[in-house]
Amino acid sequence: MNNLSIIIASNLINISRDWVEQINAYAESGIIVIISVPPHHSLLETYKMGFSKKINIVNSDTTGQVHQRQFAAKFCKTEFLMQMDDDIYFDLESINKLLNFYIKLPKKSCLAPYLLKENRAESYSKNVIFLKNILLYSEKQPYPGKIAKSSFPIPHKIYSNISEDEHHEVEWLAGGLVIMRTKYFIKDNYYKFKGKAYCEDLINSYFLKKRGIKLFLTSKLFFKTNEESYRKYNVTRFIEYLYKDFVVRNYYRKMINKKLIPLIIAYIYLIISFMGSRLKIKNPNLYKSFL
Fold first, then answer.
1. Strands, DSSP E only, in 73-157?
2. Helix or strand or coil: residue 220?
3. Which of 75, 163, 227, 241 has minimal CB crowding within 10 Å?
4. pLDDT tens across 95-125, in order?
5. How many CB atoms are closer than 10 A to CB 259?
C-alpha cells in the first residue's frame, strides 16, 4: 500500500463529507493521494473542505477531467497508480484486495473492479431484452466486456450468470477506478474534447490496448458511482447529453472502424428509453402497456 498512489481529478462540486473522510483514511494508511483541481481554485479553501494535510492537492494548468488526471500523474513516484473519480466509494480493504489481485497479473496490464449498476433488465421480458440488444448493441446476444457493433460498451455483468472467476480479460474498463503500474499510465494528450469526458474510458482503453496493455476485470470486487442516469434528466439536459455524447462516440467509432448505422440505431434506442422513463413518471400504468 505504501507503493501506491491514487490520483483524482476534481472540480470539487458536490463533494460529500463521507467521501472526504474516505480519502483522508487512504492518506492515513500510507497511500499517496494526489488531487488535481482547476487552475484558479484556492488550495487553502480546498483544504478547508476537510482534507488531510497528508493529501497532495495541486492546481492543474488547465481544466478537464482527463487533463487534470494526467497533471496529477506527474507527481506520482510510486510503482503502482490507481486513478479514481471523485464520486467513488471504495474502502481500504477493497483497495488492498485489488492491489493483491493486480500483482498476480502480467506486468503489462490494468485491473478494475466491476461497476455496479442497477440491472433494469431483470424486470423486463425476454422479448424486451432481445429488442434492447438489437437496438443498443446491434447484436442478438452481446458478450460481456466487449465493444458492440454499435460502438457502445457491453456491460461486464450484462447477464446474471457471468463467470465469477477472480479476473478475466475484457475490451474496456470503466475509468472511474482502475489500477496499473505507473509507467503504463497514458500521459499523451489522447482526449481532444473539453468539458465532461464522454466516452473517455473507452478511448483510454483503446490506447492502452494499442500499447500492448491487457485489460482485466475482477468479479470479486465492485464499486458504485452516484452519477445520475440519463433517464432522469429533464428534456433540455437530455438533448445536450445526447449531442455531446454522440460527438465523442462518433469520433471513437471511427477510431475503432465500426459502422455508422448501428450507432444511429443505438441513439434511437436511447431516445425511446428516455421517453419511456418520462412516461413512467407521468403515467405508470400507460408505461407498463408501452412495454
1. 80-84, 88-89, 109-115
2. strand
3. 163
4. 999 999 999 999 999 999 988 775 555 556 7
5. 12
